[in-house]
User: Fold these one by one.
Assistant:
Number 1:
Amino acid sequence: MRKPLVAGNWKMNGTRASLAEIGEMAKACDATLRAKVDVMVCPPATLLFPAAALALGSAVSIGAQDCSPLGEGAHTGDLSAGMLFDSGAKAVIVGHSERRADHGEKDADVAAKAAAVLAQGMMPIICVGETRAEREAGKALAVVARQVRGSVPKDAPAGGFVVAYEPVWAIGTGLTPTLQDIADMHAEIRRTLARLLGKPAAQATRLLYGGSVKPANAAEILNLADVDGALVGGASLKAADFLAIIRAA
Ligand code: PEP
């Protein structure tokens, strides 16, 4: 049994005033919820330490949104996995499509970042997803399978990482694939992981769907067989919306 994970990606949103939302989430995630679903919030790096302190002892864990593949040294502006761990992060999102697009990150870069996260004893949330043009050309399954092969470290431990399928055209747009398309893609990702790491590791890996998940559509998406949770952007910024998605999981 894979325990569902609902993770919120705050992107470049939030100041100290926003910590109250995390406080509210932590308060509302009681023992019953905690037994059924893992909850994570990934605020901007500036809020990692206070967010982790606020959520300490609660069901909410804190993650980061990116990291350097390197350990330390002369890399102005970059943050290592070790620094994020030291700030209280338990996981790091790597390969988000906004980083692939804005910073030219390729699969090999994403795999190196994921390896750095694993080496630090944290959980990488490895993002993959096709563009609208790739879907319309009928290439979505092939593109995402290739991203999985290139972005997941070859020695990634069973259950130690998460793959998030986020179609680029569904992020922040209010659009979502059909339930059948989500189901087909998640099954393809699991098959790809089985070829890459073996069937037990593929079965142990949580696959999240991300892209315009909101309270109104969370239950039907999360009910799909190979969907083990959600990566949520906009709807994770407010405790009320995020909690409704957590309850759906
Ligand atoms: C995301 O960027 O990870 C995301 C899923 O965003 P949204 O939920 O806003 O579409």
Number 2:
Amino acid sequence: MEENKIILTGVKPTGQPHLGNYFGVIEPALRRSENNLNSFFFIADYHALNNGLSADEIKRLTHVVAATWIAAGLDSSKHHLYRQSDIPEIFELETILNATVPKGWMNKAHAYKAAMDQNIEAKRDIDHDVNMGLYTYPILMASDILIFNANQVPVGKDQIQHVEIARDIAGRFNAKYHSSTFTLPEHIIEKNILEVPGLDGRKMSKSYNNVVPLFASDDDWNNAVKKIVTDSNQEHTIETFKDTTFYKIFSIISGETETSKITDQIVNKSIGWKEAKDELLHQLISRFSEKSKMYFELLNDTNKIDEILKTGAEKIRPIAMETLNNVKATVGVL
Ligand code: TRP
């Protein structure tokens, strides 16, 4: 039955994807959609406007995110890959939804609350640096989801609340108009996702400056791998080695055979960290260099990416139009 579900997820074009994004989001989402022809992947460029990036950055990162998904294995002829801004019905729907969403729901949304808490702590005006885009972020996200009547929304833990709000918005609209206009979406948190630690052992995150880039040149990968924090004087048992950041990164990227081999080598001291890191680089290259090549080829041909995104949007826009017309009729503006 899973095959008939509509799966939808969006990514903001706000940064260069790293290994943490790949194993935590990209790869599990692609696996889930493997046998599902109703998968929608989009680039949430209107959401990204709230992050204060320049026009050039938004444009560049939109291409980066699209190329990443394609190089990671998304088949744009099988699945729907599009840019949020190419489906204007989403924004029209948002305006209609605005009329049914209680302001109090937005006061409780995490992103806004976090900004508010920071301002309180810094003894600033509570809404300092808060724009309306941040405030109404969950309503736009609800529009993204409801316009295609998605059933399942794979997201990271930080986005659960937003999907819950989308569900509440759908339910409230249906109740208000005694209709079954919207499907109630549910969030999906993939089980057994692999959490790659960052170079310093904390969560891998651009804001900690501890990432291994997903698609990169061998030199860039090498520079990242060299920065993995290791303890040079330590003798390792299997247990203590398994506890290292190096091991955690290595074992996620590599197969079991390579992982047990390097474990033996470290434990019996036939190699040191330098050789171990060379081997990790080798593993990165063998797992990701082909995909990297495709990624860079695509980025060199942004017209092609634009074409793919445009075609993706054209294919599904009729669905969005149908939902919007239905909603308009329901509220009395059609
Ligand atoms: N808010 C999501 C994030 O920051 C991105 C996003 C926008 C999204 N619209 C969505 C995710 C709809 C899932 C469904 O990661």
